[in-house]
Amino acid sequence: CVRQDQSAVTVRLYYLQHGSASIGFL
């Protein structure tokens, strides 16, 4: 499940950097 953890971390970093913009991406 390491890959899932890394994905979650990447998504969190994306949220922090892009803010609400990533909501449209999801």
What does this structure look like?
There is one protein chain. This protein has 26 residues and is mostly helical. It has one domain (1-26). Helices cover 85% and strands 0% of the residues. The protein contains two helices and no strands. It is rod-shaped.
**Gyration radius, rounded:** 9 Å
* Poorly predicted spans: none
How do the helices and strands follow one another from N- to C-terminus? HH
- Helical fraction equals over 70%
Give the count of helical stretches. Answer: 2
Anisotropy-based shape? rod-shaped
Annotation, overall tally of beta strands: 0
Integer average pLDDT: 71
Instruction: Estimate what percentage of residues fall within beta strands.
Output: under 5%
Distance between the termini: 21 Å
| Structural class computed from helices and strand pairing | mainly alpha
Total count of domains: 1
Could you give a short account of the major beta sheet? none
Write the layout of secondary structure elements.
Elements: H1 2-18, H2 21-25
Short description:
By secondary structure, the chain is mainly α. The chain has helices at residues 2-18, 21-25.
List the main descriptive attributes of the protein structure presented here.
mainly alpha; 0% strand; 26 residues; single chain; rod-shaped
